[in-house]
Amino acid sequence: MIEIASLKETMMHGVELCQLLLEVISVACVVIGLGKTLWLAARVRDHQPGFPQIRLCFGSWLILALEFQLAADILATTVAPSKEELIRLAIIAVIRTFLNYFLGKELAEQTEHHPTATGPRQS
Hints:
By secondary structure, the chain is mostly helical. 84% of the residues lie in helices and 0% in strands. The chain is built from three helices and no strands. Helix 1 runs antiparallel to helix 2 (47-78) and helix 2 packs antiparallel against helix 3 (83-113). The longest helix is centred in the N-terminal third of the chain and has 40 residues, at 4-43. The model is unreliable at 117-123 (pLDDT under 50).
């Protein structure tokens, strides 16, 4: 029979590993998004029409990174040892959710105003 304490410790290690993985993926999203955005910025010759396209590219990657960070925060709350830790994580999750919401809303408005900015132009 498996001891409950051992099972709980194994679960906590698994959650910590998944949390770390989600945070690494989030950082990778920002780095990849920055690289793709810089590549796009270098390819766009006329800055005025290309600027919305660049913002949409990087903003989309930031939204994805925020989603992974929020998932990591949710996992962290499952093993949070104290009430203070839970409150801190709840505040962080609310801030990230608002950032994600307003960034997504801004990108949607940008797409409505510049329908040609939905993706990079093919040469």
